[in-house]
């Protein structure tokens, strides 16, 4: 099973296969490769798997995924 996490692009550098972005994952900033998402721009939400953006998504979908992940985290905390 794969898990892709949504994040918001803060800035981009490079082009083509060397294109990358600084991405905000709810306060955690990471560098992400954008080679597979040439349509992604600053302010867009992307799904990231192992440091590579695999799709762009809208802000509503990103919020739904982040809420679902937060629910899982709460369930895990309750079961501990």
UniProtKB/TrEMBL annotation:
GO annotation (BP), single: protein maturation
Alphabetical list of Gene3D superfamilies matching this protein: 2.30.30.140
InterPro entries xref list: Hydrogenase_HupF/HypC (IPR001109)
Pfam name, any one: HupF_HypC
Gene Ontology MF annotations: carbon dioxide binding; iron ion binding
Coiled coil regions in record: none
Family listed: Belongs to the HupF/HypC family.
Protein name in the entry: Hydrogenase assembly chaperone HypC/HupF
Organism annotation: Luminiphilus syltensis NOR5-1B
């Amino acid at each position: 099973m794969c898990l892709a996490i949504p994040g918001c692009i803060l800035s981009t550098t490079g082009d083509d296969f060397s294109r990358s972005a600084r991405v905000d994952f709810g306060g955690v900033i990471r560098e992400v490769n954008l080679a597979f998402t040439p349509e992604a721009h600053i302010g867009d939400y992307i799904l990231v798997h192992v440091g590579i953006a695999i799709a762009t998504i809208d802000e509503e979908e990103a919020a739904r995924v982040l809420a679902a992940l937060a629910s899982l985290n709460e369930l895990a905390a309750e079961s501990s």
